[in-house]
Amino acid sequence: MLGAIIGDIAGSRFEWHNIKSKDFDLLTYRCHPTDDSNMTLAIAKAILDSKEQWNRLSEKAVTSMQLIGREYPHGFGHMFNQWVHTDDPQPYNSWGNGAAMRVSPCAWAANSMEEAMMLSDAVTKVTHNHPEGMKGARAITAAVFLARQGKSILEIRDYIHQHFYALDFTLDQIRPTYEFDVSCQGSVPQAIEAFLESSSFEDAIRNAISIGGDSDTIAAMAGSIAEAYYGIPAEIRKHALTFLDERRLQILNAFEEKYGVMLEKETAIGHTRTVDYTPMQGKKKPMNDQPQQLSLLDALDTTDAAAASTEVSVQETSATSLFNHLYQACNILYGHISHEYFKEYIIPLLFLQRTSDCYDEETAAAVAQYGDDVELFEEEELHAFKIPEGCHWNDLRQVTENVGQAIVNAMMSIEHANPDTLAGLYSAFDDASWTDKGKLTDALLKDLIEHMSTIKKGNANYSADIMGDAYEFLIKKFADLSKKNAGEFYTPRSIVRLMVWLLAPKPGETVYDPACGTGGMLIEAIRQMHNEQAAYGHIFGQEKNLSTSAIARMNLFLHGAKEFSILREDTLTHPQFLSGGTIRRFDCVLANPPFGLKGWGAEAFSADQWGRNIWGCPPDSNADYAWLQHMVCSMKRDTGRCAVVMPQGVLFHSGKEGDIRRQLIESDKLEAVITLVGGVFYGAGVSACILFLNNHKPVSHQGKVCMIDASTIYTPKRAQNIMTEDDITRVFKLWQDYKNVIDYCVVVDLETIQEKGYTLSVNSYIEKTQAAAISPAQVRQNFMDALEEVKAAEAELTRLLQEGGYIHG
């Protein structure tokens, strides 16, 4: 909400004196809050006064806007000015932007998009009940809400484009001719575009003011979205607070105390991170201070507390900054390439530039060490990868015509020059249409290359860990953009870390992922071993998808891994890691195979030439137990351990799967079952579990299975449930302690499992805390209270339907 106020204050001096530039002082003595700030605060007060009884929000909005409007009676349009001062305020069918500029508090109070739209309508229809007025307010509310959820700029753009406005212009295109326009359709899309083209909170406001027009209102709308997306820099926040008097500060403080603060936190190395902070309630100040000073001190203290609330490591901040740079490249491709293909372009370019920048560093290091004698060395003695003449990143920057063809030539030449390491790496991205000038003009590709060139990506700039982490963030965002199959190539890293902790790979042990996706599990295993050299030649993965297997190889390279083996084929039908005609065995096996795979080749598996059907053949409608048996056969007989993510159906399904599960249990390889909360995996509507198998159980664990219910150990987020580092540490400790814990953990012997029909449903075994007994009188009272709530809700719905003309009383 404060973002809207800051935008309004910054834009106030330009409303009637437009500036067509981003070069100006942001906040000066000539700036001041206008009606945009006052009405935004009025809506915030209405939300607070409603106490989340939203059926009263429209009434509270009228009261609050009239109260504050009469207290600050300047800057209103003619119709709204009359509305503020009338004793019988009625909506006046306005299509202006007056509701859109004030509506951002609704997005902070809402818990869902549906609720956000309902709140927006409630505070808008009391004045701007024209369809365009309602639409403009909804669009700003939606953008702020999506930004609060952590959605990307591209996702926000898509949502607005699909549901509200065609964002088919750029600020540069409209800036020369854009004029004053107070209509929603003539100012709301422009404000949203100002945010979409921004790189920071301040940049969004500068964008909005730079196009001219209704500067304060456009900047207020852009600033409200930018605050939710970036947070507000502490110094800008502190400066803006000095423009607000006691009345305004009191409302701001009360609203932020309930709904929190978004701060764009600066770090020592100049990068930023958004901090979501909720102030402590009940703060006390010396009573001899003036009221305005008290309110200002509260607001300033909140800023300082938010700034100090989160310590950010240099590595994390650097990785986040690098990711933001990479993801902004997608914005250049937006409108030319479908979302699902962004990775086909950005990932190969990243690797190409990283290779070139590292090549330059290696050259400089060799010259420093050997001087003129450097010419005596072969290229492969000095460089990790060969780069043929004319194929360096800097060569691409010099190309002005047929840029796409030059990119293809460079990639293919580098691939062919490094057959032992890079064979098939770039050519795997065969969906990229680099040479299709109908999609990608030379000018656009030049823009893309120059954007990537703004940050060097060598080892001196970013370590392998930082580069790899940024790459992981990028993969996750590509998962966000294609949720249908995201789970196929992205597993939440906290879940991966928990699995690796269970396996505890030791330096020198072999690690294998038969469904390796983008290689995240293998990378985490290398980190666990704390010795990269000990992992050389010991990392193995197989992946069916061509481009995903290439991404895995790039991922491992970018994380600094060497001498690994990633092979491409369908693991269930064509396993690639063989030894003497049988399945090769490894010390550690881990995977998150696709859940419930259909048509996977059951007929061939029933007579599997590699003997993997040790407990039988699962149905062709579900490959879960085929994956499990493949992994069991891939475990070394003496040291082999396996951690695998499966849908919870494997714990209780009957039929063929039930018989396989019985044999698995009787084999005494199963050491632990961990059930997880639903919603932690992309693209998986079912709840998942982790199975941990061990061919060499400790004596104290033999004949037993440790069952852990982690379905309540998670951190809820608006967009998705997650498991934090603290959450997985808590789960892992339950495993380490290996004892019964009410509600969470039980160690069960095989005889007990047999008695329960070989089910592994964790809740069938774990002792649960008994619910407190409720008296019949209390049950009756609860029922009557609920009935009254239903009646009140039904009456309110009837009133709204009558008011809207849908039914007649």
How would you describe this structure to a colleague?
A hairpin with a 5-residue loop joins strand 2 and strand 3. The chain is built from 33 helices and 14 strands. It has a 9-stranded mixed beta sheet with strand order 6-5-4-9-10-12-11-13-14, with helices on both faces. The longest helix is centred in the middle third of the chain and has 29 residues, at 342-370. It is globular. It is an alpha/beta fold and 809 residues long. Helix 14 (246-259) runs parallel beside helix 15. The model is unreliable at 266-275, 282-288, 310-317 and 484-489 (pLDDT under 50). It folds into 5 domains: 2-230, ADP-ribosylation/Crystallin J1 (ADP-ribosylglycohydrolase fold, Orthogonal Bundle); 232-277 and 286-305, no CATH class; 317-476, Ferritin (Up-down Bundle); 483-764, Vaccinia Virus protein VP39 (Rossmann fold, 3-Layer(aba) Sandwich); 781-809.
Biggest sheet features: 9 strands, mixed
Structural class: alpha/beta
Q: Could you tell me the number of beta strands?
A: 14
Rg calc = 30 Å
- CATH homologous superfamily descriptor of the largest domain: Vaccinia Virus protein VP39
The amount of beta strand, in percent, is: 5-15%
CATH class of the largest domain: Alpha Beta
Intertermini distance: 39 Å
Strand order of the largest sheet: 6-5-4-9-10-12-11-13-14
> Per CATH, which architecture of the largest domain?
3-Layer(aba) Sandwich
**Stretches where pLDDT falls below 50 for ≥5 residues?**
266-275, 282-288, 310-317, 484-489
Total number of helices: 33
Anisotropy-based shape: globular
Mean pLDDT: 86
The overall number of domains is 5
Percent of residues in helices: 40-55%
CATH topology label of the largest domain: Rossmann fold
